[in-house]
Amino acid sequence: MKSGVKFTNIFKKQIFIPLAAIILLALINLIVDPSFFKIKLSDNMDGFKVLSGHLITILDSGSELAILAIGMTLVTAASGGQDISVGATMAIAGSVVVRMIGLTYGAEDNNIMEYAMPLIIAFLIAVVVSMLFGAFNGALVSFFKIQPMVATLILFTAGRSIARWINLGKNVVVSNPSFKYAGVFLPGVPVATPIIITIVCIIIIMLVLKFTNLGLYTQTVGINERSARLNGLNPKMIKMLAFIILGICVAVAAMIQVSRYQTINYSSFGKDIEMDAILAVALGGNALSGGKFSMMSSILGAYAYQFLTTTLLTFNAPPDALPAYKAGVVILLVVFSAPTVRDKISKLFKQLKNNKKSGEAKEVA
Amino acid sequence: MTENTVLEMRGICKEFPGVKALQGVDFTLNKGEIHALMGENGAGKSTLIKVLTGVYEKDGGDIFISGKDKPIMIKSPQDAQNNGISTVYQEITLCPNLSVAENMYIGRGNNVIQNWKKMNAAANKILQDLDIPAKATQQLGSCSIAVQQMVAIARAVDMDCKVLILDEPTSSLDEQEVEKLFVLMRDLKKKGVGIIFVTHFLEQVYEVCDKITVLRDGKLVGAYDIEELPRVQLVSKMLGKEMDDLSDVVRGYVPNVDTELTPIVFEAKDLVSNAGISPFDFVIRKGEVNGFTGLLGSGRSECVRAIFGADRVLGGTVMKDEKPAKIRKPIDAMKLKMAYLPEDRKMDGIIADLSVRENIIIALQVLKGFFRPFSKAEQEKFADEYIKLLEIKTASRETPIKALSGGNQQKVILARWLLTNPDYLILDEPTRGIDIGTKVEIQRLVVKLASKGMAVTFISSETDEMLRTCSRLIVMRDRKVVGELKGEDLTQNKVMSTIAGGDK
Q: What pTM value is reported for the model?
């Protein structure tokens, strides 16, 4: 009886939607081809053993999205809007990394072998730059009260030009082998580095949410800004903070991606990833109008989305048709995550249970 | 159903998870009758209204309406409207940026092409008939709240309604506006409309109603003719216990603060904010309860907002505990152990989606700091303590505050500020829109806090409530402080004449 009650209540839990999506996709794969779940330990190109398999691919290639979902969740919660400049800012951050380690490259020299500065310093500079752009977006939203989508439209449009300018308009290739560490493998480590970085990011945000009031304050500001102020909060600063945190996430995601490809193409780098990140937040059942949020649901939402992409790819869906397939599935997910639909389902289950009970009662009689 | 009955509800039941909101409630409304629906918060008034208007689906019972032999099914507000049941809610639900006529005709009929001339003419005719001081082409937002309310009623009436529900229509109106509304209500009564009037103001019930139905804890207590039920009995029926005269409950606390020896808690000189009030001086001593009084819009709220730093302070000096202080933002005031319960509970008070627990701890948590969150156990302790202390009725401490009734929401906000342990508490309309029982509780609490040494500034639109609790009244008119009353001057007449401007 008790467990039955819990069972019907789970439909109302926010985390149910991304979780259900993942389970559903897993089931489909299980039926179609159980080998989907096989994880192998095999040699890679650099001659050490690494884990591989579809599940690993999902975790690996979902990394950028999961990290961006963290920041996007906070921005959504605090400002009630979304940052659509994420992809463009990623291109900027990636360009900064490449430019910093290749400060000296000349006109013909499109290949970086020696670093001009340690990679970690270049990365930290990219983080700072990315935070500044976040602060720029945040300032437009909180101090000038521009709608987030409109405010971030500025960088969405201008960002890739800035990235091009940083990189002098070249497609530079970084061939120093250590550049791959962040996006592929660390020597001797069997788990892809992006997975490790993402886990670290998730742990950090969970600790931050636990040991600071970030969650409470962001939600308070997102739900009722006027009341937040009367309770001593500074809503402007909190919105700024959310955008700045998203900036950090953008820099980390950019580092992973630039390392993956070992090059940066400012026009395609991180293209459309902002929409995927927003979708991840929505798939996590978070209201895009802000307020209450669940960080874990957003992150699971990101992986659910990646799971879908990988599944479609293993079914040999033509890459061009991929977006259409995805859209179909997303529509289903979003409909099911709508509170009214979930309420209905929950009611339906209750009714079924009641019917069963009355049926049993009749039998007894 | 008799000839004269326009609406009959029989054995209405409605259940929410964990709460039986309505248990077999009967309600009968006659033609041309103004019928008060009374009860404390949580008694089931709102639920009954929402069942009738199709916001909630009832779990049991029948609804009959004149002209139909079979019980009618109301599944949506649209159904209610089609059956001639119209509602005007406490909050204006019209669009302030459209014109009066547009507001009256929006969403009605299916004509794609609108004849504006005809519509405006028709609207003007209704406005004239009902003696509403508005023009059809005027933007609704430019009308006073009372007129907006009347436009909402005009819209309802024009939709050929048999039953008009007025849910707390007077809570944001001043006395003259209320009077105008009553004229309109009596007018409609003559035209045979049955009116259900939900309000917390006892005076108004006795002024305008013919019958009273009392609910308590989701059950029907009874339906009475107005002459049969004196005030004291009505209150005791609502509360479910015999009451001493309400006013005796709190009267009698005369704080010993007139002496110059009592330390000053807060003092302001020439304080002025950007909300358009004239600079004012203000003093409050330890253990004192004082209040700002005046008509709606006279600037009483703006004064306390300036004190707390809620509006932008433009000038003046402020002393807290006889030391100079700077209050620019609410947080500055909070750090000086001040607390402010805002007038607009919905917009400025509650954080709707957050739980009761989070709503209680938020202010103290902000004071404690970003990097020092209370543990879950501490938060739960605080929440439980105040839920018990203030007798907050909530399913659990994790219930979102928006699910609570108005009075209980107000108690949560009060708990929030008491938890910060202030020595100066500002309460702006803490009793608006809440039931008598809670009102008395809050008044009692104010007096109790003051007797323990807290300074309290109390604002209420009900003068007798202020006379009961305050030992000094600052009277405001047209955004200026025009007088101060204390001791023997604290009488209804004196307050009225000061508000009105001298003894004219």
A: 0.77
